[in-house]
Design brief:
This protein is mostly beta strands and 117 residues long. The chain has 1 helix and 7 strands; from the N terminus they run βββββββα. It has one helix at residues 101-114; strands spanning 12-13, 17-22, 25-34, 38-43, 52-58, 68-79, 90-99.
Length: 117
């Protein structure tokens, strides 16, 4: 039996600048794809599963008008799962746990605009 899709929202490929904060530490990363429920991104640092993050996504438009979305999330997948000094980049999936209504609307509008048909 094939694996069933477990995601509840459409994902779109998106190379968005992001800032993630873990405790007092901040890092700038780039998303690989995004949905209304979460974001998948690349990180030079290992981030363990269940780590809580503060996330800012840059949804700036073509005219350069800044549109930042701020939310909280939790890491649900990190590949590879364990820190490995030979790994130069980790693939991290984060589920949004808290996002303001206005930011949710901005994110959903971005996704609808970028859904590949």
């Amino acid at each position: 039996m094939a694996n069933a899709e477990r995601r509840g929202a459409v994902r779109v490929p998106a190379r968005l600048a992001m800032e993630i904060k873990v405790g007092g530490d901040a890092a700038h990363v780039e998303s690989l794809n995004v949905s209304a429920n979460g974001v998948y991104f690349a990180s030079k640092n290992h981030i363990p599963i269940l780590t809580k993050l503060r996330i800012t996504l840059d949804l700036s438009d073509e005219e350069g008008k800044s549109k930042n979305v701020d939310c909280d999330g939790v890491v649900v997948r990190s590949e590879p799962e364990d820190a490995d000094p030979s790994v130069s980049e980790y693939q991290v999936a984060c589920y949004f746990t808290s996002i303001a209504d206005h930011d949710q609307e901005l994110l959903e509008a971005y996704i609808l605009k970028n859904v590949p048909f």
